[in-house]
């Protein structure tokens, strides 16, 4: 599906415009403290005309061998905020009691981010740092998430391939 840049898009959002749309796909999860798993994911990235941010929402669920939904997994909601010189901020909130501020750069369909701040409620699991990569490859959105949590050093936790559905 070709990328169409909306005519009413704030010019500051042009480097991030490839994210706009609805995406769906599957991925793999792993971490030393859990069993490996497969997940399905839906992501919606939208904009508000005249505003220099993108709205981001992601939800995922555990899937079985046949690709059928087993149970809900993670949700996150946030805002992509472009900055000068192709820098970008991402602010994310999770219903598990975690809020993150990510800083990074966007370069021709690739985004690399690292956490600048992680805040969590007293009931949230211990999580201290993250690293995310997003890339548009032949029209698909690939992403990976490395994290440091529960006393472990930063290492891969999630990776997925999403296809544009709208």
Automatic annotation (TrEMBL):
Q: Which Gene3D superfamilies match?
A: 2.40.128.20
**InterPro entries registered for this protein in UniProt:** Calycin (IPR012674), Nb(III)_bact/plant (IPR022939), Nitrobindin (IPR045165), THAP4-like_heme-bd (IPR014878)
Q: What is its EC number?
A: 5.99.-.-
Q: Which reaction does it catalyse?
A: peroxynitrite = nitrate
Please give the record's comment on domains: Forms a 10-stranded antiparallel beta-barrel structure able to accommodate a hydrophobic ligand in its interior. In fact, this fold hosts the heme group, which is located in a wide surface cleft.
What is the cofactor note?
A: Binds 1 heme b group per subunit, that coordinates a highly solvent-exposed Fe(III) atom.
Q: What does this protein do?
A: Heme-binding protein able to scavenge peroxynitrite and to protect free L-tyrosine against peroxynitrite-mediated nitration, by acting as a peroxynitrite isomerase that converts peroxynitrite to nitrate. Therefore, this protein likely plays a role in peroxynitrite sensing and in the detoxification of reactive nitrogen and oxygen species (RNS and ROS, respectively). Is able to bind nitric oxide (NO) in vitro, but may act as a sensor of peroxynitrite levels in vivo.
GO terms, molecular function: heme binding; metal ion binding; peroxynitrite isomerase activity
UniProt keyword annotations, A-Z: Heme, Iron, Isomerase, Metal-binding
Q: Which SUPFAM superfamilies does the annotation name?
A: Lipocalins
Q: Which cofactor does it need?
A: heme b
**Family of the protein in this entry:** Belongs to the nitrobindin family.
Protein species of origin: Actinospica acidithermotolerans
Q: In which pathway does it act?
A: Nitrogen metabolism
- Quick one: which residues bind heme b? 33, 125, 157
CDD domains per record: lipocalin_heme-bd-THAP4-like
Motif position, GXWXGXG: 21-27
The protein's enzyme class: isomerase
Under HAMAP family, the record lists: nitrobindin
Domain of life, source organism:
Bacteria
Designated name of the protein: Peroxynitrite isomerase
Residues forming the THAP4-like heme-binding domain are 13-164
Pfam families per the UniProt record, alphabetical? THAP4_heme-bd
